[in-house]
């Protein structure tokens, strides 16, 4: 999870005050951006986030850990990828997407984006019925004549 320190955006000359962002908000932004990258199946969650999803409360920040060290922001992203995708290409696309999205929405720059591939999820195949293992595909249309 994120540290308990709010991040203050750069003071602007025309601003009436300061703008502070809670790190959890940045984790949500990064989590949503990471899921939108092609090849990402889902983010890794905790037991608490899975229980919350059962009750209909989506946690968009799951799988993202943000570390604030002075002016440096480091994001650790834990993802499951679809089977058959190029892991380096998806990881590079994710790093680019997360940096661009955070810069666009908050004017904050990520120094480091660490992508941790937790697993690969194969596509689901239809279950085979053992009784119909040698059944012809044309057998359904024979009785309709």
Low-pLDDT stretches: none
How helix-rich are the residues, as a percent range? 25-40%
How many structurally independent domains?
1
Cα-atom radius of gyration: 22 Å
Compute the number of strand runs.
6
Q: Mean of the pLDDT scores? A: 79
Q: What is the CATH H-level superfamily?
A: Cation efflux protein, cytoplasmic domain
Most strands sheet: 4 strands, mixed
Class by SSE composition: alpha+beta
- In CATH, what is the class? Alpha Beta
Described by the principal axes of the CA atoms, the overall outline is: elongated
Assembly level: single chain
CATH architecture: 2-Layer Sandwich
Q: How big a fraction of the residues is strand?
A: 15-25%
Order of helices and strands: EEHEHEEHEH
Q: What is the name of the CATH topology? A: Alpha-Beta Plaits
Query: Total number of helical segments?
Result: 4
Distance between the termini: 65 Å
Polypeptide structure, described:
This protein has 145 residues and is of the alpha+beta class. It has one domain: Alpha-Beta Plaits, CATH 3.30.70. 31% of the residues lie in helices and 24% in strands. The chain is built from 4 helices and 6 strands. Strand 4 and strand 5 form a beta hairpin. Helix 1 packs across helix 3.
State the main characteristics.
4 helices, 6 strands, 145 residues, alpha+beta, two-stranded antiparallel ribbon, elongated
């Amino acid at each position: 999870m994120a540290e308990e320190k709010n991040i203050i955006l750069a003071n602007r000359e025309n601003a009436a005050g300061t703008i502070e962002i809670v790190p959890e908000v940045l984790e949500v932004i990064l989590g949503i951006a990471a899921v939108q990258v092609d090849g990402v199946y889902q983010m890794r969650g905790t037991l608490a986030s899975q229980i919350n999803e059962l009750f209909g409360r989506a946690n968009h920040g799951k799988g993202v850990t943000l570390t604030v060290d002075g002016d440096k922001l480091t994001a650790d992203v834990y993802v499951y990828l679809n089977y058959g995708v190029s892991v380096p290409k998806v990881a590079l696309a994710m790093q680019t997407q997360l940096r661009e999205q955070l810069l666009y929405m908050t004017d904050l720059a990520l120094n480091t984006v660490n992508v941790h591939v937790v697993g690969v999820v194969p596509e689901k195949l239809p279950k085979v019925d053992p009784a119909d293992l040698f059944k012809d595909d044309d057998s359904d249309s024979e009785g309709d004549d």
